[in-house]
Amino acid sequence: MGGEIVAGDRSQVFGDVSIDTRTLNAGDLFVAIRGERFDGAAFAAAAIDAGAAGVVVPRGWARRADDVSSAPALAEGSGGSTAARSASGGGKALAGRAAVVIEVDDTTVALQRLAHSIRRESGTKVVAITGSAGKTTTKEVTSELLAVRYRVIRNRGNFNNHIGLPLSLIELRQRPEIAVVELGMNHAGEVSTLVRVAEPDVRVWTNVGEAHVGFFASVDAIADAKAEILEGATASTLLVANADDDRIAARLRAFRGRVVTFGMDRPADVHASAIVDRGIDGTSARVTTPGGSVDVVTPLLGRANLANILAATAVALEFGIPLPVVVEKAAHLRPAAHRGEIVRLPGGVTIIDDSYNANPTATKRALEVLASSRASRRVAVLGEMLELGDRSAGLHADVGRAAAAANVDVLLAVGGPPASALADAAVTAGMPKASVRYFATSDEAAAAAAALVKAGDVVLVKGSRGVKTDRVVERLEGGGAERG
């Protein structure tokens, strides 16, 4: 970690690594991460009191803690600062427990360096996935396929940033054979940092879209940031790349290793043809690979998920997973929570719960699934898509027009002015005004949805997490539902 042990026993063994005193266990090593709204160093003393065997803190922390603890005690109710009280506890804890104190220049960098060291010593093969959409599903499907033959771990949930990824890689001390992780970003340079930490043997680039375009000058700038997945490769490094994405194809020349492609619209090493969109029943296709061709049927919804399966298949084949196994596993895949889950209500209403997150590309793909679904009425509850910057109103209007083109019967738009622009564009594109409603909050939209849905309806619910469209799903579920 590039640090210095300033207190405690150098031979101390730690149980786990924690950055949160609320979940810390006795014997853990607490790393005092500094965030935008908190400073972990203020909780280091509390971590020791909670049983941490050691803490990683900024340089000078132990000296400041001892200085404060040697000062006159604060009187009860005297209103001393939180930092002072924490530091005072720090001095007392150091004296009483002899916890290991490691001081570093930057605690986040120290966490990353620790994770990188463990990753190198583990001998684990690392598969890293990036892209504007589909990262988590591709990670989950890849993990399922590889687990047939290997001991596999994956990063939990969306532990995919400069803190979450290192915490996931620290789990490699269990020495699994393969780790499958996703690399997230919303600013240039972030993927580069994650690649340096993870040193992936296999990299997967799913696509480039408008997600987080509010932080970038253009979609091409997003592609340049995602292209950091190509950095640090050797001749033996494998890249699994989307052959249908022009922006990815244009940047492959910078890659030093091997490339395996997947796709549907253009020739690719792993290619899907004869595709049938079966609405809420999933997708089927003929998949052709260097090892042969097979018919794949999956309950995962839409062509976007088919692309994710193709990417995962390309990785699995590289690790020797037989094609018949891919076919069998694909037939029993289930979506992650709120990522295209099918919810069947007792009253005959079916919900496509895609409320985890949203961007323009993913929302249009979800509307394609809704359009191909057999239903009495197609209802779309679309929440505002965040982090789109100056282009937000225009991109929401594009989605409104896509909703009209998808023959949506009822549209509920939720959020701020961009969501209102989505509703207006749908009407301009031909949807009856009476069939389009706008709500400022998901709670209002939930009440309206509960009042209007009826047996035979298929309801798509999708939006950015900050808009909380999952509340619409919860309201509709009411007394119970079957998820699949």
Question: Could you describe the 3D structure shown?
Answer:
- The protein is an alpha/beta fold.
- The chain has three domains: 4-105, Udp-n-acetylmuramoylalanyl-d-glutamate--2,6- Diaminopimelate Ligase, Chain: A, domain 1 (3-Layer(aba) Sandwich), CATH 3.40.1390; 109-330, 3-Layer(aba) Sandwich (UDP-N-acetylmuramoyl-L-alanine:D-glutamate ligase); 341-483, Mur ligase, C-terminal domain (Protein-Tyrosine Phosphatase, Chain A, Alpha-Beta Complex), CATH 3.90.190.20.
- 35% of the residues lie in helices and 21% in strands.
- It contains 16 helices and 21 strands.
- Strands 7-8-6-9-10-11-12-13-14 form a nine-stranded mixed beta sheet, with helices on both faces.
- α15 packs parallel to α16.
- The protein starts with a strand and ends with a strand.
Distance between the termini: 44 Å
Number of domains: 3
Q: CATH-wise, what's the superfamily of the largest domain?
A: Mur-like, catalytic domain
Number of strands: 21
The amount of helix comes to 25-40%
CATH fold name of the largest domain, please? UDP-N-acetylmuramoyl-L-alanine:D-glutamate ligase
Task: Give start-end ranges of low-pLDDT stretches.
Answer: 70-93
Please outline the major beta sheet: 9 strands, mixed
Let me know the average pLDDT.
Answer: 90
Tell me which CATH architecture of the largest domain applies here: 3-Layer(aba) Sandwich
- Computed CA radius of gyration, to the nearest angstrom: 25 Å
Please give the CATH class of the largest domain: Alpha Beta
- What's the arrangement of strands in the largest beta sheet? 7-8-6-9-10-11-12-13-14
Q: Tell me the strand percentage band.
A: 15-25%
The number of helical runs is 16
Principal-axes shape call: globular
User: Which class do the helix and strand fractions yield?
Assistant: alpha/beta
